[in-house]
Amino acid sequence: MTAIPTSMRAIEIVAPGGAEVLRVATLPTPRPGAGEVLVRTVAAGINRADLLQRQGHYPPPPGASPILGMELSGHIAELGPGTTSRCRVGNAVCALLGGGGYAEYCAVPEGQCMAVPTGVSIRDAAALPEAVITVWANLFEPRRLFPGNRFLVQGGSSGIGTMAIQMARAFGAKVATTAGSDEKCSFCLGLGADAAINYKGDWAAELAQWAQPHGIDAILDMIGGDYFPIHIDLLATGGRLVHIATSRGSKVTVDLRSIMMKRLLVTGSTLRFRSIEEKSGLARGVEQQVWPLFANGQIHPVVDSAFPLERAAEAHRLMESGRHSGKIILVLE
Predict the structure, then answer these.
(1) How many other CB atoms are there within 10 angstroms of residue 14's CB atom?
(2) How distant, in Å, are the alpha carbons of 68, 175, 266, 272, 319 from that of 46?
(3) Rounded-to-integer distance, Cα 163 and Cα 191, Å
(4) Residue 246, SS3?
(5) pLDDT digits (tens, 9 = 90+) for 71-99
């Protein structure tokens, strides 16, 4: 067994600010606590929450690593006390994190580790945990999307959007999405969307026409703000509106009668601050219900770009530019 080094390379935030505040530092290697495993990182996914944390707006949950990174892939290097036989040293895993992914080693609760799906490289598996579990936790685990439903996901070329399109199609829904350019719309159609609409035009009118005469059954929204009343209008009777981010604002105004008359469900959730038990339960559901879809080729990771750890600032700038389609990852080995 390879010895665990006492120190490791990791990305450090010098001070809250722009991408230039990220630098490679030498930090102590974490040790796994009770119920945790130590993972030697192969790659780490980048998420918009990382940008907010870098800016000082989104601190990690209590007890989580202050190092950036909410998902990774790698090999188990060490088992902490109280772990089960499910994880073994050397296993290839991807994992959902409270923090710590932008580093050569990360201590992870055992339950939040998932086997790398068949047919997916260990590098690309770093692009899966946040997106897949978010979609699963908001659409399928609570049974909000059903075969034959008309489904809209805003931001179809994002990491979550690319996975939501594929998972919804695989589970039998008809899928519409929006994106910020005709090129990105074509990209979304290639992933299986039935309709992809440039949101710089009259996207609401085009979606209303697409959904006629029934309306849209479920919407997964990362926008909020002034999109909220438009979504209420687009939803069918009994429709579900699920919020997972608020890029255009968290405060909205609504006539409650419109929700009551159409018997709508308006809900939302975050993932990072859920308990280890909740995250572990979601991970088991994903392994059982979604991983087989990777094995049979129905869905696949969508990785736009991969950067070495030393170029983390460049990776953040790419995400901020919005030029990417799919996930951006950091590669450590």
Answers:
(1) 10
(2) 9, 25, 28, 14, 8
(3) 9
(4) coil
(5) 999 999 999 999 988 889 999 999 999 99
- Identify the pLDDT of residue 40: 98
H or E segment to which residue 206 belongs: helix 203-211
| DSSP label of 248 | T
Mean pLDDT of 149-161: 97
- Average the pLDDT over 1-25 and give the result: 95
Question: Alpha-carbon distance 99 to 68, whole Å?
Answer: 6
CA angle 259, 264, 268 (to 5 degrees): 105
- Please, what's the b/e burial string for 72-96 (b: 16 or more CB within 10 A of its CB; e: otherwise)? bbbbbbbbbeebeeebeeeebbbbb
**Separation between Cα atoms, residue 248 and residue 138, nearest integer Å:** 20
Residue type, 248: R
Structure tokens at 160: 């979550």
Integer Cα distance of 327 and 131 in angstroms: 9
Q: Where are the beta strands (DSSP E) in the chain?
A: 7-13, 22-28, 36-46, 71-79, 92-96, 105-109, 113-115, 150-153, 174-179, 195-198, 216-221, 235-243, 265-268, 303-308, 327-331
218 within 8 A of 152, measured Cβ to Cβ: yes
Average pLDDT of every residue of the chain? 97
CA dist., res. 242 & res. 143, Å (int)? 12
Residue 161: pLDDT band (50, 70, 90) is very high
Q: Are 306 and 329 in contact (CB under 8 A)?
A: yes
CA distance 180 to 42: 32
Distance between CA 5 and CA 1 in Å, rounded?
12
